[in-house]
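Hi there, hope your week has been kind to you so far. It would help a lot if you went through both lines with me. No rush at all, and the record is pasted right below:

***
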Amino acid sequence: MKNTVQLITYVDRLGGGTLNDLAELLGPGGSLAGVFGGLHLLPFFLPIDGADAGFDPIDHTRVDPRLGQWHDVAALASQCEVMADVIVNHVSAESPQFLNFLKHGSASEHAGLFLTLGRVFPAGALESELLAIYRPRPGLPLLATRLANGETKILWTTFTAQQLDIDVEHAQGRAYLQGILQTLAANGIRQVRLDAVGYAIKRAGTSCFMLPETFTFIAEIAGQAHALGMEVLVELHAHHQRQIEVAKKVDWVYDFALPPLLLHALIFKSAGPLLRWLACRPHNAVTVLDTHDGIGIIDVGADPADPADSGQGSGLLSPTELDQLVEAIHTNSGGTSRAATGAAASNLDLYQVNCTYLDALAGDETAYLLARAVQFFVPGVPQVYYVGLLAGRNDMDLLRRTGAGRDINRHRYNRAEVERALKQPVVEQLLRLIRWRNGHAAFAGSVSVLPALNDGGLHLRWDHGTDWADAIFDFTACSALLSWSDAAGPQSWQIGLRAPAAGAAGATGS
C-alpha cells in the first residue's frame, strides 16, 4: 500500500453516481486529479441499496449495473490503487444461495454455506451461553426460519435478519470467499478490507468475537489474498489492546481510536489520552477521522467482550471521560447526532456516534484542519472519507427519509454540489495539505514524539535523510505550526491562517 492519502467513498454518492463519473472526477482533467494515491470503493456489489448500504450483497461477484461493470472497476484500478470490501461474515437473505436453501432445506447444494445454531451448539445452548455472545446490537444474533420442506432452522444473523451469517469453516463457505477474492484480483483490486471479520468464528461457551481461532482464520484468508497479489486490511471495532494484537498478525489495521481521542483533545484541551495511545499504537495502520460508519466509542473504552472488565482504567478514556465526550459531540452538533445515534435511529450498532467530524467539532474549520494535520502526521496510511473531504455537515433530510442513523454522514453529492464544495476555503486548504503530505519525502522516514510545550500540546517530527517535517499542535489554543524542509529553504504554515501552495514539498510558507 502506498504511503499516500487515500479516498474512501461510495461510488453512487460522489459526483454523478457511476464508476465512470468517479473516474472522471479523479482522472486527468478532473477536479480531484492527482489528489489521492489510493481509493477505497465502498461496496459496489449487487445491490448497493439493500438492508445495509451494500454490506449485504446478493451477489458479491457482480457489480451493481447501475454503477457500471467490472471493466469500469479495472479502469479505475489502472489509475490508482483500489481497495474493495470482502464482506466476510454474511450474505443477503435475497441471495440465490439462500433462496435455494429456503426451497430445498438440507438437500440444497448451498446448505453448508449458512451457519446454524446447531453447528456451534450441537448439544444445545444454555441461557448463560447465549447471553455471553458479544454482538453490535441488542438481542440475540439468531433467527428461527421455516423452510419450504417444513424444516425449521435457527440461523445466525449477527447484524440484521436480512444478513445471514456464513459458515466460514465449512467447505462451501471457504469456496464462496475464495471466489470473491479471485474475482476482485482478476479486476485489478490490490487491497481488500475484511469487513466484520471479528464475528466470523463462533465457539460454544465463548463471546463468539475475536477468538484465537479468528486469528487463524484471518491468517488463512490473508494467505489466499497474498497469493492473488492483494494486501489485507482488517476492520475491527474493539478494545485497543485487541487492535494491537491483531496488528502483529496482519498487513494493516484501522486506527479507530484516533478519531475520538483527537476529539477529546480538541474539546477538552488535553493531549494526555492521545499521547498514551501514540506511545503504544501499531504503525501498520490506516488512519481515519471519519468513515461510512460512526465515530467509534468502543475503541477507546473498556472491553465489552470481557464480562469481568468493570471498565475502570482499562480504556484509553475512563467511563466518565467517554460519557462527557459523547455528550460534547451531541452538544456541538446541536443535538443532530443524538437523533442519529443508538436507539434513536435504526442503527446496526450502539457503540458509535453518528455525526460528521466537522459537526462533532461544532463546525470549527480551524479545529478540523488541525485534526487532519494530526491524522496525516501520525504513522500510517491516511484515508479521507468523501463527506469529510468536502467538509460535509450532518444530513438531517436524508436521516428523516431513511431513518437510518448512519445516513446522517452519507450525503449524496451530485457533480454540481461537489464542485461547489471544492471551492470552500477549508476544502481548498485540506486538498493542499493532502498534496503536501503525499509529496514530502520526510514521511518515508521515521517519526519522533517530542516534548510538548504544555499538557494540551503534541509535537511530532518526521526525518528521512536530510528531509524533515515538524508539527507543533496546541490543543489549548487550537493552533498548529507545520514546518518542513524544502530546496528553497525551510517552509512553514500556521493552520487556519495560510495553506501551502498547491505543489507538494516545494510549497511556499508563511
Q: What stands out?
A: The first strand starts at residue 6 and ends at 9. The CA atoms of residues 74 and 186 lie 9 Å apart.
